[in-house]
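Service request form, structural biology core

Requester: graduate student, group of Dr. S.
Request type: structure prediction, single chain
Budget code: on file
Notes: please return the result as structure tokens.

Sequence provided:
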Amino acid sequence: MSTSTSRVRKHRENLTLEQLELRRKKDRESKRRKRALMKEIRQVIPPDPNIAAPTSPALRRSHRDRASASAKASKIKSSVVNPCYECFDVRMSRGKGRGVYTLRSFRKDEFLLPYVGELISKREGVERERKMRESKGCYLYFFTHDGKSLCIDATAEDGSYGRLLNHSKSDQNCLPKRILINDRPYICFFAARNINPGEELLYDYGENRADVLNELPFLKS
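Core staff response, request fulfilled:
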């Protein structure tokens, strides 16, 4: 009797444990389904009723962003290779000679103009600069690219406007940036801030040579 009773008691305990485990599984499954349902509801109904729910997945927004960036880059490339100056005007600037003025507004970081000229080595540029300073002025832009010191010579009167931008440290409204097109570096100007119609385009020449600053003191300000 004692053995039989013991077996019955163990059988009942086993059934009870199995039932408890089955109940736990059902509870976990129920909670999982509730979480999944709530997730679906949150995707359909925005948390804030004043904010519209997203109309497209994040991946599609990312694709549109990439397409927009690609279109922007393509437009800049076209503007560098085939510059258009219909949004600008060349006028006399007080105490500086010719200057470039805007005919419409530009947003910050918007492309403005390319610095068009002959791409040469720094060594050749320095030699040309020495001769130009003795004669008609200098239209050379020195920069580095891929570990090389280069220069763009924009001395030629080719009708381009980038070469005519004047200097200012305190009132600059555009910034030069280097971009690559077909493995060739170009210098282009972008708006440093929002620019209104009628403003003169100015940037910092970055000159720091003492002899040049003494010869051309306007480069200090």
